[in-house]
Amino acid sequence: MSHTTPEKIVIKRALLVVLDGVGAGELPDAGQYGDAGSNTLSHTAAAVGGIALPTMGRLGLGNITAIAGVPPLTSSEGCYGKMREASPGKDTITGHWEMAGVVLEHPFPTYPNGFPPDVISAFEAQIGTKTLGNVAASGTEIIERLGAEHVRTGFPIVYTSADSVFQIAMHEGVIPIERQYEICGIARRLLTGVNQVGRVICRPFVDAPHSAMATVETRTGTISGTAESSDAAVPPAAQPPAQQFKRTERRRDYPVDAPPTVLDDFQAAGLAVHAIGKINEIFNGRGITSWDHTTNNADHTAALLRAAQSNNSPLIFANLEDFDMLYAHRNDPQGLARALETWDAALPTILTAMRPGDLLLITADHGNDPTTASTDHSREYPFLLAYGPGLRSGIDLGIRQTFADIAATLREAFHLPPDAHGVSFLGSLTG
Q1: Contacts of 317 (CB under 8 A, 6+ apart)
Q2: Dist. CA 428–CA 431, nearest whole Å
Q3: Which residues does residue 383 pair with via DSSP β-bridges, in sequence order?
Q4: Helix 333-353 crosses helix 297-310 at what angle (to 10 degrees)?
Q5: How far is the C-alpha of 214 from the C-alpha of 234, rounded, in Å?
Q6: In degrees rounded to 5, what are phi and psi of residue 82?
């Protein structure tokens, strides 16, 4: 294979984009997590008979793992590889922190059998009401199962998953959204020490738009509102079973406080960091200069394009969570494939907006194989694509031994102090 070998160039701006949950094959220790055989990209593509990702394909995605519809190339326009997670666990916080240079020694606690009675009792005492649930469950399933009882009683629904999360589902017509956020803040302050979960997540929901009018019985009266109409004129018999409730986009994450990361070093050097999506929440604002609080892939992508066109922050850090949240957690490979194709179709405009001296890194934080029996994250290699105008192309970056190689690469590119974790691959990109 022939590689382009331009003169070494200086990186002036890096765009780090995380496709949440889009893994590229099981890690060697996946069996310890119940994830043997998982491969989000490969299995999703196989389940739909092939997936069209021509842009990421040109960057080298098909060279990383077998993906039906995305063939390997003898000469790619980008550089490619995959990363091994050095930290234990497979959750969002762990993955993003490791990209930023933090390798955890111990995983965040998980609660497959629900939270201890003393934790729930203390939480109920502080919020002044009982709770429902306290089980490990899918977020959509739990509100269908307990949503009506929540509406009748006003008791918040507490649930978790295989990840280190304390999730609280509440109907916006029963508990006002600001009170929901207060309740989740109480949970975050309570969950410390051995029960310091990675995230407390507020999961607001409302009536599903399956009728012309939605009426919610509350403890204090009746709240009525016009439901959204269906976009598709499908006969009722052809429609899927109606859902009683749906989650809203007013979710809010309350992660554990982040330790020092490469983001702090950017700020200490007077270099701005712009965050898109839930990046600001993942790091609790630490090291973040400015942010776009977008809540879905379409808005994340639009914000990323705007940033590529006009934001001069040396680091632009984005997370696109719909792949994981809307599709993989619901074992929906068709939806996941469509979302990936939509992202890939938008990517050329972002590439066109890039300037000489720009570095684009596209990766994932963990896997979430939608073809397995589990609806939880999977312990997988994230893929890694690197591209920039004037940078080298067609380079196999191999298997990186930690996500912290991204932080090490950013440190070298922007002349920041070195850290204990990670090995830079900047030289492979710049020549």
Answers
A1: 16, 263, 273, 274, 275, 276, 279
A2: 6
A3: 82
A4: 10
A5: 20
A6: -150, 165
